[in-house]
Amino acid sequence: MRILKHLLRKEFRQIFRNKAILRVIIMLPMVQLLIIPLAADYEIKKINISIVDHDHSPYSQKLAAKIIASGYFRMNDFSPGFASSFQEFQKDHSDIILEIPRDFEKSLVRENHGGLFIAVNAINGVKASVGSVYLARIISGFNTEIRMDWLPEQRVNDFPSVGIETLNWFNPHLKYPFFMVPGILVVLVTMVGAYLCALNIVKEKEVGTIEQINVTPIKKYQFILGKLIPFWVIGIFVFSLGFFAVAMGVYRIVPQGSLLLLYGFLAVYLVALLGLGLLISTYSGTQQQAMSLAFFCMMIFLLMSGLFTPVDSMPLWAKWIARFNPVTYFIEVMRMVVLKGSGFKDIKNHFLAMTGFALVFNVWAILNYRKTS
Amino acid sequence: MKQFLLFVRKEFYHVFRDRKTLLLLFGMPIAQILLFGFALTNEIKNSKVVISDQARDEASQQIIGRIEASRSFDIERVAMNQAAVESAFKSGKIKLAIIFPANFNEDLMHHHNAKIQIIADASDPNTASTLTSYASAIIMDYQKDLLKTYSLAMNIHTDVRMIYNPELKGTTNFVPGVMALVLLLVCVLMTSVSIVREKETGTMEILLVSPFNPVLVVVAKAVPYFFLSLINLTVIIILSVTIMEMPLNGSVVLLYFESSLLILTALSLGLLISNNTDSQQTAMLISLMAMLLPTMIFTGFMFPVENMPKPLQIISNVVPSKWYYIIVKSIMIKGLGLRAIWKETVILGGMALVLLLISFKTFKTRLQ
Amino acid sequence: MSDEVVIKTEKLTKKFGDFVAANELTFEVHRGEIFGFLGANGAGKTTAMRMLCGLSIPSSGSAKIAGFDVYKQRDQIKKNIGYMSQKFSLYEDLTVLENISFFGGIYGLPDKRVREQARTLINELGLGKEADKLVGSLPLGWKQKLAFSVAIFHGPKIVFLDEPTGGVDPVTRRQFWDMIYDAASTGITVFVTTHYMDEAEYCNRISMMVDGVMKALDTPANLKKQYKAQSMDEVFFELARGAKRKAD
């Protein structure tokens, strides 16, 4: 144990002496945690619409006004010809073209039906479907309005109507930062932990100080613990800083569930993560190699974790990858405990999985790591 | 010139002998393309939704039938009250609950006033609002059909056409983004580390002592990564065009030209980072931590830039990959030429130039 | 130098696949002896030393270091030896004092003793003013002397030195060997590998490795007589002429 004490003292001294690294692992994550959730917003605020009006009737103008008044759309242009609108469309200045044909109002009044043509820029699939739903709602509302103008009062309620009551739980204002901040915090802590750990161990290999260690009475497990513990502490520190200062302080995210539970999971998660860093270092001879491997893993973990795109939407083979990705679990736990107040029984499986990861990574790394050749 | 080529050859050796790093260089873009192309999507699919039908009458059955037929969700019919829904949300089992109150049919047909309750787990606002709008769309459709039998006057019908991507695939959005990400990240990372490593091991001094312009030393370092990036680009393009039906409507030459601009920008950025760090570790950490997330976000292929608050939109203008992304979309998807994207090209070229100048200048002053 | 045997090997061999790096080495080293392990680069010196330190498991043969078996009691061996490698391997980003207290501590010396001994050591080395400076800022010669002192700080029975004087000026080298003599006189056995033939003269006995085989084992004086040479350089040329392996 005394050996461990000396090892830890040395490690902490080396880390805190390195001002550049400290800045990178503390400041950079905080800055990113502050900025990125503001940017990572799926909410579709303004959809640009071009309206081509061949009719120039009170109805067509009323429809246009109604569309703009809805607040969902920003009118890019209101032109008489389809060609010029299509150019705007091609330049990505507008997302939707609504074409109102000639005699729109006339055919509605005389023949009881009218047609509209809508072109949707489908490069961004989600924007397209949401945009067309919004537009459909507005047109339907417009339709009801003009109907009411023409028909006597009583007939208004003369047909069945289905009302939809939407309740949004846990995040009633649908604020995206609530969803993104916990996830991004996880990613940042992961990056710090994994990179630092892998790089640090490999650096000793490269420089040669590891030989000196190998010759001393320091046992394998003591050396490994001496490497893992400081980064474990740093991981907890970075997480706490991000959680309390940024998530709670700036974004006002109030955790619904138990902090004890969260930190308990964090503790196990870090052990797994550092084990991974250790594992990477056993496969690397140089810092550049360690970095390459770590970066590769990080990239895949990041993409397959459900941070930006939902795991449910993935095909089966990809879901398996997501299930073998420790980051997926922590992000889920964060979102569940912080936003919904989930309890231990809800995340029991996550705990189990994370313990499994911790065991596998660390045991594998230890088996690999050989002081003697 | 001959000496320069000697340096370049040495750099090529360095790069190609390190298998593990090559894995990153070539493996990552391929992995990303495959993942983005087949696994990652913004669409909401297979979400578990519970329908609690407390009415069990004709109307509710009809609507439920349509919802099930739409295959937009993974439906389970369970009788649930609100407390049960909350518990199911908390354990992550379901994302949405649709509740039909008792006497639904009667309210609908006779009182003309029926209400369906949609409860969404809004901890994930994206999924919540999308699922809600899917369900709403189906219900609204039912309403519309119901009204048809009432032969209403003044019916507007709409003809909706999806342009560029009739099947609403997300791939066309992602591929240019992946190109930007890969080129930018890999080049910055590799160059910065490569240069700093020479500093750290002391071999940089040897090079500087040779009768060779130090600037050319650095350029020689960049050359292999330039070519590797072009190869990477080619692999990405081939993969995406063949496997993912990504269109390639514009000029390939223009595409490579613009890509070279981005690569130059990235290489200069790498040099800049290496000028300001003394250890490989720091160079790597800065390259990775400072660039990974911001590049992914501000390029604009995962989240629309227009959505971001104004100050962040300004920040995104400073990110070279954002302009490259616009350029690539215009060339590959819309088939446009230089005339349409000259503005973005000038900006990208300008960034490359400015970064080159700054980085070389700092490099020179660092040498003193 | 006493009669007590601190290193005893019997046909110690190390193979890497078909390549025999060290071939059936058989020798003894006595307590307090300065034992030189000479040979060209690639001859197998480092391989042999790594086996004796417990860094590498032999392919066959036996060895006892400080009375402990090289296969079964490696942990014990490590507690009783010191080591200084080619790259010196002190932590460049720790101070002189921090390096000493770290290595002292992991060999089990109580804190108080570490502090006292460190003070003495620093004064002896003349590093009083540099005690709180980072090792990375010291000149090479001082680093080297410090590394040696750290290697024997915990009073090991044997200290292994792997090419310790590389890259240092002759005066510093001489001072370094003074330190080695001092250590030997206190009963520490010094096992040193080198390819500086003049340093061979400083050892009690030397062995010469050629192509993995121990071609000579005797005092420098006897070897010069045997090979009718004026200097160890000549002895070396005689022995190594037929060598096949050139580089490590």
Counting DSSP E segments of at least 2 residues, the number of strands of chain C comes to: 10
Strand content bin of chain C:
25-35%
Overall number of domains of chain A: 2
- Please report the distance between the alpha carbons of the first and last residues of chain C: 32 Å
Number of strands of chain A: 5
Give the count of helical stretches of chain C. 9
Q: Please identify the structural class of chain A as seen in this structure.
A: alpha/beta
Largest interface: A-B, 124 and 121 residues
Which strand order spans the largest sheet of chain A, edge to edge or round the barrel?
A: 2-1-3-4
The order of strands across the largest sheet of chain C is 6-7-8-3-9-10
User: Rough shape of chain C?
Assistant: globular
Computed structural class of chain C: alpha/beta
Task: Give structural notes.
The complex is a heterotrimer of chains A (373), B (368) and C (248). With 373 residues, chain A is an alpha/beta fold. Chain A folds into 2 domains: 2-40 and 174-368, no CATH class; 47-157, abc type-2 transporter like fold (3-Layer(aba) Sandwich). In chain A, 66% of the residues lie in helices and 10% in strands. Chain A has helices at 2-17, 19-39, 58-69, 82-90, 104-111, 125-150, 176-207, 209-215, 220-250, 259-282, 287-303, 316-323, 326-340, 348-368; strands spanning 47-53, 73-79, 96-100, 113-121, 162-169. Chain A has a 4-stranded mixed beta sheet with strand order 2-1-3-4, with helices on both faces. Chain A is elongated. The two termini of chain A are 26 Å apart. Chain B is α/β, with parallel strands linked by helices and 368 residues long. Chain B folds into 2 domains: 2-40 and 169-367, no CATH class; 47-148, abc type-2 transporter like domain (abc type-2 transporter like fold), CATH 3.40.1710. Chain B is 69% helix and 9% strand. Chain B contains 14 helices and 5 strands. Chain B has helices at residues 2-17, 19-39, 58-70, 82-90, 104-109, 125-148, 171-201, 203-209, 214-243, 252-275, 280-298, 310-318, 320-333, 338-367; strands spanning 47-53, 73-77, 96-100, 114-121, 155-163. In chain B, helix 10 runs antiparallel to helix 13 (320-333). Chain B is elongated and about 95 Å long. Chain B starts with a helix and ends with a helix. The model of chain B has no long low-confidence stretch (mean pLDDT 83). In chain C, the strands form 2 sheets. Chain C has a 6-stranded mixed beta sheet, with helices on both faces. A 4-stranded antiparallel beta sheet of chain C has the order 2-1-4-5. Chain C is 36% helix and 26% strand. Chain C is globular and about 50 Å long. Chain C is α/β, with parallel strands linked by helices. In chain C, strand 9 (205-210) and strand 10 form a beta hairpin. Chain C has helices spanning 45-53, 74-79, 96-106, 111-125, 140-152, 170-185, 197-200, 220-226, 232-240, and strands at 5-16, 19-30, 34-39, 60-65, 68-69, 81-84, 158-162, 189-194, 205-210, 213-218. Chains in contact: A-B, A-C. Strand 5 (162-169) of chain A pairs parallel with strand 4 of chain B, so a sheet runs across the interface.
